[in-house]
Write the structure tokens for this entry.
Amino acid sequence: MTVFRFDDGEIGFTAGQTVGAALIDAGIYSWRLTRRHGRPRGLFCGIGVCYDCLVDIDGTPNQRACQVSAAAGMTVTTQTGTGHDDLAR
Amino acid sequence: MVVVGAGIVGAACAYYATRAGLAVTVLERGSVAAGTTGAGEGNLLLSDKQAGPELQLALRSSVLWNELGEQLGSEAIELERKGGLVVAGTAEGVTALREFAAEQRALGVASEPLDQAQLRAAEPHLSPAFAGGAFYPGDMQVQPMLAAASLLAAACRLGAVLRTGVEVTGSTLTGGRLSGLRTSTGPVAADYVVNAAGTWGGQLSARLGAELPILPRRGFVLVTEPLPRVVRHKVYSADYVANVASDSAGLELSPVVEGTRSGTVLIGASRERVGFDTTISIPVVRRLAAQAVALFPVLAGINLLRVYGGLRPYCPDHLPVIGADSRLPGLLHACGHEGAGIGLSPATGELIADLITGRAPGVDPKPFAPDRLIGALT
């Protein structure tokens, strides 16, 4: 089974699975913390419309986990807030 | 009195007329804020108005918006006193901007000239290509749909009646004077009718038998993903003022960029005269995005979440139409505010109430009188 990195661990996936599907398959239901209250978020609509499942993939924030196909060697990181804290100054 | 249209202008007419003691019914064929009111950014601008009648209306509106913040609740309408920043790329542009601001200042519009270092301090992410600018602390913003709904709710608490899903189809006359309206749900009696149909005010005026030349001018707004406060004010290029005043039928673009309380950045502004077609144009969206990146290079790496568009109600001389129609006694117009309708709505509503009740108006109504446009009909 091929894997991608997720935070401190590895997630296995099958060909054609999205990042979101693979995370759910692994029993992980949240991979973003909201920008105001730090509440957990994961898949909601699952079809690319609601923008709730945003996550950081290979250093780029705000990717929809339900739309990005999982690939071997990816680094997926839980996103905090807007994912653009570096721009606050 | 019957107000036709439940956008921001109709809502303000209903609010001020009800407060003046009139019995008001608002008729709306769709739903509240379903037209142009729901398709803009909610800017309340003094900075882009040159010395003249529209600036007088904007100055009076500015006083009234601050009052409305207290009467309706600043939070309820998301009234934000963010201030406007106008920037120029060249020394000549900076000089022209200073002269424009000096004329406005003589009429009571506060502004401060900013040099390059002060621009950077005000907007740290602004491109260093801009030589200077002017800060207008009196520029504000509201959430336009909330503002329209709050004004209507306040009017209804004072006795006004709102009826949605009612389309006006014609007028009824008694002795040469307007006495009522024909509608999709039956006749409605009216001693006064206010045409607050915005972009559709020309069509409504024709149905009532007193046509006005009001045409649509299309615009789009781009919405980014939420960000930390990257853009602190409403920031636009000095070219914007010239584009607003232009008569060109072709596409006109000038960058207007602003951050919002929710974190999204709004990007405008395009102007096109293409009839009532509201189809999103990808080439226009692409050019708007490129212009915004020229102002704020950091936006190059940011995603757009969505694009929305709408139609501004455009009059041939770029002034709104406010006042009685001499061709049809009993009919008043309050439409044609182009892209400034949210900002100008309170003084418009107050003026309509003043004209009907005979109270001394707070703003000179003559430049807005409908009769000036009747000769322009083709």
